[in-house]
């Protein structure tokens, strides 16, 4: 069994040659340093392709904090009620949010009353249905959902 001491380790390094290791370390340090200096100096202007920003379009709305065409949104609700609600649910949307589409509180109350929601339990412990209120959510088209 060989004796592992610092003297033997240094002797093995000397036999291998420390000069190639130092040269390898210097070469590695210079390539890493040069690459990071190259990237840091020109990050704002890529040389291989120009970046063109898209021109500003004039849409009928001004983004998430702008205004929307309320007539278009009300027509969308009508299409949902007549076509889409047979298969698709808006059960995460409360009726009261329809005021954001330009409906008055009375109109929202009338729209909600067109739907029946399950409520309860009553005094006998049974579930029952009632006309929806503005605080209720749209019912799901499927009874088990």
From TrEMBL:
<feature type="binding site" description="covalent">
    <location>
        <position position="88"/>
    </location>
    <ligand>
        <name>heme c</name>
    </ligand>
</feature>
<feature type="binding site" description="covalent">
    <location>
        <position position="84"/>
    </location>
    <ligand>
        <name>heme c</name>
    </ligand>
</feature>
<keyword id="KW-0472">Membrane</keyword>
<dbReference type="GO" id="GO:0009055">
    <property type="term" value="F:electron transfer activity"/>
</dbReference>
<feature type="signal peptide">
    <location>
        <begin position="1"/>
        <end position="29"/>
    </location>
</feature>
<dbReference type="GO" id="GO:0016020">
    <property type="term" value="C:membrane"/>
</dbReference>
<feature type="binding site" description="covalent">
    <location>
        <position position="87"/>
    </location>
    <ligand>
        <name>heme c</name>
    </ligand>
</feature>
<keyword id="KW-0479">Metal-binding</keyword>
<dbReference type="InterPro" id="IPR002326">
    <property type="entry name" value="Cyt_c1"/>
</dbReference>
<dbReference type="GO" id="GO:0020037">
    <property type="term" value="F:heme binding"/>
</dbReference>
<dbReference type="Pfam" id="PF02167">
    <property type="entry name" value="Cytochrom_C1"/>
</dbReference>
<protein>
    <recommendedName>
        <fullName>Cytochrome c1</fullName>
    </recommendedName>
</protein>
<dbReference type="InterPro" id="IPR036909">
    <property type="entry name" value="Cyt_c-like_dom_sf"/>
</dbReference>
<keyword id="KW-0812">Transmembrane</keyword>
<keyword id="KW-0408">Iron</keyword>
<keyword id="KW-0732">Signal</keyword>
<keyword id="KW-1133">Transmembrane helix</keyword>
<keyword id="KW-0349">Heme</keyword>
<dbReference type="GO" id="GO:0046872">
    <property type="term" value="F:metal ion binding"/>
</dbReference>
